[in-house]
Amino acid sequence: MKLDKQLYFINLLRLxxxxxxxxxxxxxxxxxxxxxxxxxxxxxKLKNILQRAMDKAGGWQQWKALQKVNFDxxxxxxxxxxxxxxxxxxxxxxQFLPDYHIQIKYTxxxxxxxxxxxxxxxxxxxxxxxxxxxxxxNLVNTILASTFVAxxxxxxxxxxxxxxxxxxxxxxxxxxxxxxxxxxNANLYEQHTHSDKWWFYFDQQDGxxxxxxxxHDNHFIYIENLSFQPIDGFQWxxxxxxxxxxxxRNLLYLxxxxxxxxxxxLFKFFTQ
Length: 272
Fold this sequence. Notes:
Elements: H1 3-27, H2 44-57, H3 60-64, E1 66-78, E2 84-95, E3 101-108, E4 111-118, E5 121-126, E6 129-130, H4 136-150, E7 162-170, E8 176-183, E9 197-203, E10 209-216, E11 219-231, E12 234-245, E13 251-261, E14 268-269
Antiparallel strand pairs: 1-2, 1-13, 1-14, 2-3, 3-4, 4-5, 5-6, 7-8, 8-9, 9-10, 10-11, 11-12, 12-13
Helix pairs in contact: 1-4
């Protein structure tokens, strides 16, 4: 792939995933010039809900200072009959500062794979050998999906998305939650890879991020965050489950279960 095309996909990733976050992170180094990252939210109720959710997850100030995060992710993918389609173990290495570098390693069917995205381009290796046939768009979409989900709820703050508070709902766990809807429009914004609708569920009392519903194309996916792991002030997800569902969160079948481990000793922060 030519470098200019690679850089296009890198810019797409940066715009969608860290565009707003990076802007605010660096802007926050000069508080006299830039305001609160929540200033884009005009609805005070919504602003309070998002602030509480991000405080519960670790806090915006800690998040903007996060330099690196590594973790292991294992998941089982199921078909509609409850049979395992595949089991995958991944190692994620995200570096945000000073240089942007994403690396995802995983094992599948006895083969070792590695996906890397940095300022020079995106590439995939199989058993240590560069795969020159792989589709760069698919690689970037894989990274987009992984990094977007891993960094919720902080990356909800997107000035190009429609963000709205919908009220209070009750999950099947009987937890009362505040519902925040976010709509991405790929027809209006290049950095939105899909025109998806998301419904995020935050505990009404303390802001815990219990999951989300997403409408993607013609189907719905419902994610439940089942348990958390507090590390270095952050509340990282430890276990979650993904279901195919309808628009009312009625479950059709379990699509995947996920387990995240080994977050410890993997954070570095800039000191002010």
